[in-house]
Specification:
With 216 residues, the protein is mostly helical. The chain is built from nine helices and two strands. A two-stranded antiparallel ribbon has the order 1-2.
């Protein structure tokens, strides 16, 4: 089973064809929001380092009301942040060549709605945050793979080049969640999976990289 097969098995559903159609009708927004998503992914990884890595130690031991991250979390999140920033730079270069101006866009409801599921007590909060990170990375990878064949040769090559790193990010988030929990995370994964499917299949008013099908 390939990394993409594992990832597709993890996700609750495929991206609807209507989202692909909307992406092809909004090529500039696709690139702009893709750039924004890469930047947000880097920022999320850095936030985990700052919040849980203030006193790195092996394991996840309780300290002053939160759980101290292991060196594994620090290293994986640092590498992930660097890769996401590199992807951000690559998207910007494509935008510059195509004379697409960079700008901030309103965020899709996707990530915000998923994060409403995060529990408030540690280590449950960190576990849920990592699980949601795994879903975001998995969905991004699935969309790159599904969208790539419909794009021009340059973008098709670029999107296919992102699959390996995004699949690894998905696995890193999920393995860290399992280690922090120290027990099965299946129940939490299923809870997030149900919400993720709802968000991917229900309509949105605006096209974004992580939106559902767009209502016209």
């Amino acid at each position: 089973m390939t990394d993409l097969d594992v990832l597709l098995d993890f996700l609750p559903c495929e991206t609807p064809d209507a989202w692909i159609e909307a992406a092809l009708q909004n090529p500039h927004i696709l690139l702009i929001d893709h750039a924004n998503c890469e930047l947000k992914a880097a920022q999320s990884a850095q936030a985990l380092i700052w919040k849980y890595g203030s006193s790195p130690a092996e394991g996840f031991a309780p300290k002053k009301g939160h759980y101290v991250a292991s060196f594994e979390l620090l290293n994986k999140m640092s590498k992930l942040a660097r890769e996401e920033l590199r992807h951000f730079e690559q998207v910007l270069a494509i935008m510059k060549d195509r004379q697409v101006p960079y700008m901030q866009l309103s965020a899709a409801r996707y990530a915000g709605e998923l994060r409403k599921l995060v529990r408030t007590q540690e280590p449950d909060k960190l576990v849920d945050t990592l699980i949601i990170g795994a879903f975001i990375e998995a969905r991004s990878c699935e969309r790159f793979a599904k969208l790539a064949p419909h794009l021009d040769p340059e973008l098709e090559k670029f999107y296919n080049s992102l699959l390996k790193s995004e699949a690894r990010h998905f696995k890193d988030y999920l393995s860290l969640a399992e280690k922090v929990a120290g027990a099965s995370i299946d129940e939490r994964v299923q809870r997030v999976r149900a919400k993720e499917q709802e968000l991917i299949e229900s309509p949105d008013a605006e096209f974004r990289f992580h939106s559902g099908p767009v209502t016209l």
